[in-house]
Amino acid sequence: MENGKMKSNRTGKLISWLAMLTALSAVGAAIKIPAVVGSVALDVFPALLAAALFSGWAGAIVAAAGHLLSAMLGGFPLGPFHFLIAVEMAILVWIFSALYKNNKKVLAAGLFIIGNSLIAPIPFIFLLNKGFYLAIVPSLLIGSIINTGIALFAIPRLAFLVTKTLSKRDGRS
Predict the structure, then answer these.
(1) CATH number, domain at 92?
(2) Residue 90 forms part of a structural domain
(3) Which of 2, 33, 141, 158 is surrounded by the fewest CB atoms within 10 Å?
(4) Are 111 and 96 contacting, i.e. CB atoms less than 8 angstroms apart?
């Protein structure tokens, strides 16, 4: 029974962390980067934190939720296409996690930036037009670099706190 209670306590703490990071995505969503479409924001760095500090799946959940919150605050300028973007964000953050956790941090950051700014918007060439793609890429590139930079700065500073919080046996210090 003791082991089950410890696992439940750890799960509760993980859910709390993910809720805080998703809320931080909502705050980041309010910080917009000038773009053709107003949904480029600082909403993904919390997902990168979750991916590096917890797991790829945790990061993917925060990424998808964070993007949808950002799009909602921006008035869903791309309508239902935001669900496609949320899936793309989740996949990119999951890949970031896999590489980051295998100590390929530079590759993880580089692939995330390239994937988010150049590869993820490719479907919009076919769904909208090439002009939209060419117009959105510079803003996505700047946003991806800023989000990734914030995450890479914060991850090592939060790693100890996360480890300490999740390793406590009960609610007491």
Answers:
(1) 1.10.1760.20
(2) yes
(3) 2
(4) yes
On whether residue 173 sits in a domain, the answer given is no
pTM of this prediction? 0.89
Domain count, the chain: 1
pLDDT, tens digit (0-9, with 9 covering 90-100), for 88-118 = 999 999 999 999 999 999 999 999 999 999 9
Predicted pLDDT at 78: 82
Residue 130 lies in a domain: yes
Query: Which pLDDT tens digit goes with each residue over 108-150?
Result: 999 999 999 999 999 999 999 999 999 999 999 999 999 999 9
Q: Tell me, yes or no, whether 6 lies in a domain.
A: yes
For the record, the structure tokens of 41 come out as 């924001």
- Tell whether the model's pLDDT for residue 26 goes beyond 50: yes
Task: Please give the residue range of the domain that contains residue 11.
Answer: 2-167
